[in-house]
Specification:
alpha/beta, OB fold (Dihydrolipoamide Acetyltransferase, E2P), Ribonucleotide Reductase Protein R1, domain 1, six-stranded mixed sheet, 13 strands, 31% helix, 22% strand, binds guanosine-5'-triphosphate, binds magnesium ion, binds zinc ion
Length: 376
């Protein structure tokens, strides 16, 4: 019985026409604890007893097409997260965000990684008594991701945002002064996560622009776009807007560099509209969020993230680190030793190139910094 009542949304909808239903309207505003607990218990029972959902592999979606008629799973994208709650935007809807908990069993392909991340495509079941609430039951394949090593003892993968296309590495010309070590770590994380890195230097009105451009020139030679902006004066914002248009872009960088200020400038009026709609559903709640995705006026999304104090690379070992410094590519095959760390070995072609000024010394420092952090 509970199964029909709770899971068969299409049946429920058919029944709304019956006189019985008309006399007994559903109470959508009932927030009582006991109701919620009952519903959660039933979700658990469902998963324990039936495991009707099988979203485990890429090749099969549901085990039996006909079985799925007993429950209705909807799909959507996680656009923000709270403590143990995720805000999901159902597919095909831009305004009906719903607040989801994780189901007792969540089918996912990702082991040793964040269970649910902002950007994830998820399957969820809606609470028919509270249509703004749901339960995530499956997480789809992550096509791309921005990950770091989680902070603390547990060194698993922390996915900051999944399924974006670009990573905007936001730094400030000053207050706080940009960090070249961190820029280079982000570039590696982007390559590992299949994201296109773009460097954005904000607050350029605080420094001589020529100095900034000279210091960043190396990235152009590496094929990485660098955009210089000032959210304060508006300089460079149109260029940035064109770069982000139609794409899904994650904003990441240290605290205070101006990520949210830039995001607000780019979001314009649509942001206000989204804000209003969201107010009713999830904004205004106490969000200690990891990231929030916003739609851009002219297409695309940006995911604003809070500043990170640490950015430990996930899944890059000492031997591999050199392969992410592509300016080393022409040199490392010429090193005397096959396994050369390019730090102290005689006959090292990378060090030779560094001494001749053919390899940027700041980039080399970043490489050494990564090796050293791996030794800890
Ligand atoms: N001088 C100057 N200040 C700016 C500029 N852009 C942003 N700020 C200021 O920098 C401060 C931090 O801006 P936020 O947008 O909150 O920075 P954030 O990167 O989102 O910081 P977190 O959310 O903590 O990671 C604010 O006081 C902004 O007004 C700029 O172009 N020039
Ligand atoms: Mg911010
Ligand atoms: Zn070497």
């Amino acid at each position: 019985m509970w199964k029909n009542k709770l899971w068969n949304i299409s049946d429920t909808m058919k029944k709304t026409d019956s006189p019985k239903q008309k006399n007994k309207p559903r109470r959508v505003d009932d927030e009582s604890d006991s109701d919620e607990t009952k519903w959660m218990d039933e979700v658990r029972r469902h998963h324990e007893n039936k495991s009707a959902l099988s979203f485990k592999s890429e090749t099969k979606t549901f085990r039996k097409e006909d079985k799925i008629k007993h429950i209705t799973t909807e799909f959507g994208r996680v656009i923000a997260s709270e403590v143990r709650q995720w805000i999901v935007q159902p597919n095909g809807s831009t305004k009906g965000e719903i607040v989801c908990l994780a189901g007792g069993t969540v089918h996912s392909l990702h082991e040793d990684s964040s269970l649910i991340a902002v950007g994830d495509e998820v399957g969820f079941i809606r609470d028919t008594n509270h249509p703004r609430k749901g339960m995530i039951v499956s997480v789809g394949k992550r096509h791309t991701k921005l990950s770091r090593r989680s902070v603390g003892k547990n060194t698993s993968e922390q996915v900051l945002v999944s399924n974006a296309e670009q990573l905007l590495i936001v730094m400030a010309a000053a207050e706080p002064f940009y960090n070249r070590r961190l820029i280079d770590r982000y570039i590696i994380a982007a390559e590992k996560g299949d994201l296109t890195p773009i460097i954005c230097i904000n607050k350029i009105e605080l420094m001589p622009e020529k100095m900034l451009r000279d210091d960043m020139a190396i990235y152009k030679t590496l094929g990485i776009k660098t955009i210089f902006v000032s959210a304060e004066t508006g300089k460079g914002i149109p260029t940035l807007e064109r770069t982000l248009r139609g794409k899904i872009t994650v904003f990441s960088g240290p605290s205070g560099v101006g990520k949210s200020t830039i995001a607000n400038l780019l979001l314009g009026e649509e942001m206000q509209e989204t804000g209003e709609v969201s107010q009713r559903t999830w904004k205004g709640r106490h969000i200690t969020t990891s990231a929030i995705m916003y739609p851009l006026v002219k297409g695309g999304f940006i995911a604003d993230t809070p500043g990170l104090r640490e950015f430990g690379l996930w899944d890059v070992n000492k031997e591999e680190a050199q392969f992410f410094f592509h300016e080393f590519d022409p040199y490392f095959p010429l090193c005397k030793y096959k396994w050369c760390s390019h730090t102290h070995e005689p006959g090292c072609a990378v060090i030779e190139a560094l001494n001749k000024g053919e390899i940027d010394s700041e980039r080399y420092q970043s490489y050494v910094n990564i090796l050293e952090s791996k030794e800890r």
